[in-house]
Design a protein that fits this description.
Layout lengths: L5 E3 L4 E3 L2 E8 L3 H11 L11 E4 L3 H6 L3 E2 L2 H10 L6 H7 L1
Parallel strand pairs: 1-5
Antiparallel strand pairs: 1-3, 2-3, 3-4
């Protein structure tokens, strides 16, 4: 059985007066959606290959099993898994 590998980075991106972080799976989008649903993250936060998550949810996501990594590591692992979309691909899915 595969262990869930959900990754989260530091909340460092400001938008609408809040800091945001990214939540990804380095295994599959299905795994990411299942984790997000289980912890109450709405699907509207999904941005094509990741969820944007407000800083105030970060500790709860870590407690639920998300692994903290640097942003560069998060992107590296997303690319290595073949799950990283270009900005144009993400906009096309919106």
């Amino acid at each position: 059985m595969h262990a869930v590998t959900i990754l989260i980075d530091d909340a460092r991106w400001w938008f609408n007066g809040r800091k945001w972080c990214h939540l990804v799976s380095d295994e599959s989008y299905a795994e990411l959606h299942e984790f997000a649903a289980r912890v109450g993250i709405p699907r509207r936060g999904f941005q094509g290959d990741h969820y944007d998550v407000p800083e105030e949810y970060r500790d709860d996501l870590i407690a639920a099993g998300a692994i903290v990594v640097e942003s560069r590591e998060l992107v590296r692992r997303l690319r290595a898994a073949g799950l990283r979309l270009s900005p144009a691909q993400r906009r096309a899915q919106a």
